Amino acid sequence: MHDGRAQKTRYDKAGNLIGSTDLRSGTTDYTYDKLGRILEAANAGRNTKEKFAFDPAGNILDELARNAREGSLYRPQGNRIAGYDGTQYHYDALGNLTLRELPNGETQLFEYDTENQLIRAKLYKPDGEVQQWQYAYDPFGRRISKERIDKGSLHSTDPKRTVFIWDGSRLVQEYNYKGVYTYFYTDQDSYEPLAHVFLNKKDEKLYLSYYHTDQIGIPREQTDQFGSLLWTGEYDAWGSLQTENKIYPNAHQPFRLQNQYFDSETGLHYNLMRYYDPVCGRFINQDPIGLAGGEHLYMFAPNAQNWFDILGLAKTPRVKLGSLGEVRAASVILKRSHLGKGKATNQGNRDYARGLGKCDDDAGHILGKLLGGSRSNQNMFPQLRKINRGAYRDFERKVHNIIDKDGKALLKWKFEYANGGTRPTGIVYEVFQRGQRVLRGKFNN
């Protein structure tokens, strides 16, 4: 019988996760630079240590480039990295990754459609096998199927074709010849997996499994309805599964970072609007929304211990969480086209916010409804009602007018916690254009 996954976490004053301990994994310690970028992840019990460095543009550096940089020989060649940790990368003129050469000798070729969506992968395996995979999308850019189309698939017991069903931007179901998986999340607006039900076509029975996640929503363990352990996994600092133990051989656990689906054929993570490469912690092609998502078109986040990007689009506020699930910081680049497209809060949002704050708090939007903010709980915090409906709303009108006039702006939030806990005592809200701060507001809470 599984007795539950107990995790202890430690954070620095900036809200960065600096230590995580559980019975299975031991203690992992994290180190960051002044910009919050991960520099080291070390676990003495497992005798593992990962080290990272970045160029001035925020690109992760390979060991050779790192040494060259230290010797003043390194020159950034744009944001299309040529290699990292033994993997080599090649791109087309539009910035899409077209060739990926892995350290084990495997070569992967990628093809894209006119929307820069990955539609085909041709994989040359080290043993001489050649696999071809095809991917299809609906008009909203959501992947609706993947299929192996080479002749070798006829001799494989793995699913040849998988179909995906969506509810908005969340995967709610997938099916193949083995059966149907239906997914459930921790709440109606969450992307953190809670459980799935598998309808087995062989015996027509239903099987329930639960996900047990860490502080950022990555599944670390999986149990059945009786609490028996089915699966465990260990990840590196960028969300790549390093080891897994399938206590139940047919355990199905495709999730990685929030709203990322693992493709075993390529090793990439499907992140709704793009594919994420966990080897180097970045996307394989440029942000579909262009510079509205920031100056670095391939970047995922400064680190994967505190940040997540649920859509693969940087226009969604990037939220940094603390040890208790409290929001510590957020940022987004907003365009005129986003204004007025937000969603009002509902009772579920209010229940979530009051669970972090007081019983009469509002569910305050981080990115306000007027500015296009969603009603996802990831965009909520407990806020004093009179501030939310008064000074904070007035400030958002000023932000709206700036963006409506000039086209876009960078918004940043910092949440202060004078008394600890999960309810902020203050919010600092800043607006930047062309590298200059044009508006600042501080709100007591």
TrEMBL record:
Family annotation (InterPro entries): DNA/RNA_non-sp_Endonuclease_sf, Endonuclea_NS_2, Rhs_assc_core, T6SS_VgrG/RHS, TEN-like_YD-shell, YD
Gene3D superfamilies in the cross-refs: Extracellular Endonuclease, subunit A, RHS repeat-associated core
Stretches assigned to the Teneurin-like YD-shell domain: 22-287
The keyword Membrane is assigned to this record: no
Domain Type VII secretion system protein EssD-like: residue ranges: 357-425
Alphabetical UniProt keywords: Repeat
UniProt keyword Ligase present: no
Matches recorded under Pfam families: Endonuclea_NS_2, TEN_YD-shell
Protein name: Type IV secretion protein Rhs
Organism: Eikenella corrodens
